[in-house]
Amino acid sequence: RRPPMRMVDSDSPASAAANWIAEFCDRPGNEFFCKVDEDYIRDRFNLTGLGTAVPNYHRAMKLLLDGPEQLDLASDDPQLETLQRSAELLYGLIHVRFIMSVQGMPQMVAKWMLGHFGVCRRVFCEKQRVLPVGLSDIPATDRSAVSQ
Q: Which intervals of the chain form a coiled coil (predicted)?
């Protein structure tokens, strides 16, 4: 079970989307994710075909972009956890597209240059930085691996 997302202060100058994305990317286990630009997420062209791949797509998008307080759900409502999982799946699918774009590649290069993905443990690799590699196109089928 994943730790719950913190409720966002509605008086915060940052957008709810930026807060949700930062919270998601900062969670343990999500180190390979970069922060997808909110404008990229709001551009419908970048979302083509995702509506059929994500349960509760529209509500998950609303959660991702507007925050949980806009869904009229109590923080202990079991439906919120289901929507949270849908929003995480949606963000992951958007992230895959984003990192292959002109806007996303520099972010991933920067993470690689800083060693965020780790280094090769083999002696002869001399601590060469590694890249994450998805072993399947199907979400939640397999974990990411690293490659030099």
A: none
